[in-house]
Each structure stands twice: as structure tokens, then as C-alpha cells.
Amino acid sequence: MKLKYIIIVSILLFVASIGITTAQGARGNSVGNISASEVDDGDEGEDEDGPNGEILNQIRERREAALKKTEEMRAENRERIQEMQNEKRQQTLQNVADRKDRVLQKWVEHWGRILDRLLSILGKVESQMAKLEERGADVSGVEEAVAAAEAAITGAKAALGGFVDETYVFEFTDEDKLGGQVKGILSGFKEDLSSVRESVKEARDAVHAAFQALREAHQTVVGTADVDDQNEE
Hints:
The chain is an all-alpha fold. It has one domain. It has helices at about 1-15, 35-40, 55-80, 85-135, 140-165, 180-220.
């Protein structure tokens, strides 16, 4: 019972802590073909049916490789676990592994799509920046913000890739120490989840900052009108 209690409490703690911070609402008007709501919604929403991008596809490939490694490690533990006298404890361990896999899969897919979307938005910002520059606007601030956003997205991609590469499989050597091992695995899993979430949030904030810099440059040239001429919209 003690092991089961530790595992259940650990699961509840890490599941409760992994929600994405919601956007703070639309901030500002559209610039060209980029709406403020598109930027503000760059890290939330039901995006499971969206198109697959380069980042998500790369992450999926790494996930497949990690799954093979994970299964190999679990196979080594399986015989030892089956020798345990307590069948409920065996089932509890299996449930923990299944739940962890589902949580990981859900957030890996979600964050992969977010990063692809942010990359797409940033591409639009660069396109509108070029148009503003042609019209004589000072876009140095936009260029700096775009570079920072690119770096943030690259960092978030690396964090997500590192998270995917981890197996989070405990090494079963002593049944009496099993509770502590499982608790340690779940604690590390939760910390890594939180770290990736923060990296994705930083990428989203950086893209928003790039959009805001674009708006400021845009207003110095055309006031509140869109970058594109009305007959181009």
C-alpha cells in the first residue's frame, strides 16, 4: 500500500503541474497577413489536427528511436517484475509506465506543433519586415527581435528533443527500494516536462516580441494601416 500511495501521489503532482499558461488575450491589431490573435494563440488550443511541420516530424523520429530503447530496457525488467509476489504491485508499475507514456506522447505532439506554428508566424514577420524596409522603415529593432525569437525556438526545439530522447525507465534491482526508484523517475520526468514547457513559453514570448517590434516599425510608416496595400488583401 505504501508503494501504491507514493506512486499515485507522484502521478497526481506531476500531471497537475504541466498545464500550459494561457495567453493573455489579443494584444493589438493585425500587421499585414499576421493577426494579433494568431500570435497570442501560438501556444494553446486544440491543434491535434493541424498540419505536420518539420520540427514535429523530426521530434517524432527521435521519439520512435527512444521508444525502441525504452522497450529494450523494460524487457530486461519484465522478468524480474513478474517474479514479484504482489500482483497488485506489478499492475501498479505497469499503470505508471502506461500513464507516463500517454502524458509524454500528448505533450510532445502538442509542443512540436506549437514550435512549428511559431516558426511559421516568425516567417510571416520576416516577410512583412522586408516590405516595411522597402518602404523606408527602420527595421533594426525587428531584426534583433527576430534573431532572438529564432534562438528561442532553436532552444525550445533542443529542449524538446532532449526530453524525447530520455527513457525514464527505472532499474529494477531490489523490490524494497522500488518505491523510491519509481518516485525518483516520476520526479525527474516532471522536472523535465516543466523545463520544456518553460522553453516553449519563452519561444512564444520571443515571437510575440518580434511581432510587437514589427507593429512599432509598421506604425512609423503607415500609421494604423496594414503593411500590404488594401488592394493586395
